[in-house]
Fold this protein.
Amino acid sequence: MELVLSRKEVRELTGCAQRARQRQHLDAMGIPYVVRADGWPVIDRQAYHQAMGYEAANDAGHPKAVLNLEALDG
């Protein structure tokens, strides 16, 4: 899996082919991105998933950590 969304994925996400319009839509959606030297937005795939409410892949199936403070009284 790629680390960043492809241009095609960004176009599908925003519904826009122009880089300035893509950035406007990403701003409106609250999806973080950086702008390359040529003006195209680059979106980190993990940041996209977090913004869209996806669970991180490494969190699936793992129980939440619980501190045992009673063990400190030992």
About this structure: The mean pLDDT is 87. Helices lie at 7-14, 19-29, 45-51. The CA atoms of residues 21 and 41 lie 10 Å apart.
